[in-house]
Amino acid sequence: MNQQTVFLIIVCTWCQLQGGCAQSSRPHIIVIVADDLGWNDVSFHGSNQIPTPALDTLAYTGVMLSNYYVSPICTPSRSALLTGRHPIHTGLQHDVLVGAAPYGLGLNETIMPQYLKQLGYETHIVGKWHLGFFKKEYTPTFRGFDSHFGYWLGEEGYS
Ligand SMILES: *[C@@H]1O[C@H](CO)[C@@H](O)[C@H](O)[C@H]1NC(C)=O
């Protein structure tokens, strides 16, 4: 089972998300979720082993959320990130989804891209989903994302 650290850079402020800004001045929002990334694996946290100048620039010009904690596995963390609810309230607190598990993040949950769509944003996801795909309604493009380039399960080979 993968250990996971969620690493977030949100390039906006919450008041902007709430519609406080005119449409044309709304910032782009980039959320990066990195598996198996240790706290000190980015140079803006002090690593001198792994230089991360692009991430450092995003961090220094964005908002660093440094006091948030995640489950040590993917599915619970992703469900919490996208819903804003603790995994025990999404029913996905126990484990990662495996294979074609006949469940996923409940369709009764409104998730981040759906809120962003209401504010006029285009929403795209790149990489893994890992929140269920046993019915098409559970997949990213039925959950508020305009597009998804990636895979529905937890891992994929690159060769
Ligand atoms: C969605 O349904 C599940 C299962 O009944 C429940 O645990 C969860 O709290 C519900 N979510 C919302 C947002 O009502």
**N to C succession of SSEs:** EHHEHHHEE
Strand count:
4
Oligomer: single chain
Rg, rounded, reads: 16 Å
Q: Which strand order do you get reading across the main beta sheet?
A: 1-2
Count of helical stretches: 5
The CA-CA distance between the termini, in Å, is 21 Å
Mean pLDDT: 85
The poorly predicted ranges are 1-18
Bound molecules: 2-acetamido-2-deoxy-beta-D-glucopyranose
How many domain units? 2
The major beta sheet can be summarized as:
2 strands, antiparallel
Describe the global form.
Answer: globular
Beta-strand portion reads 5-15%
Helix and strand composition category: alpha+beta
**Helix proportion of residues, in percent?**
10-25%
Question: How does the SSE layout of this entry go?
Answer:
Elements lengths: L8 E2 L3 H7 L32 H9 L1 E2 L9 H10 L3 H4 L21 H7 L5 E5 L18 E5 L8
Parallel strand pairs: 3-4
Antiparallel strand pairs: 1-2
The site of 2-acetamido-2-deoxy-beta-D-glucopyranose (NAG) has 5 residues, from loops.
Cofactor: Ca(2+)
Organism: Lingula anatina
InterPro entries: Alkaline_phosphatase_core_sf, ARSB, Sulfatase_CS, Sulfatase_N
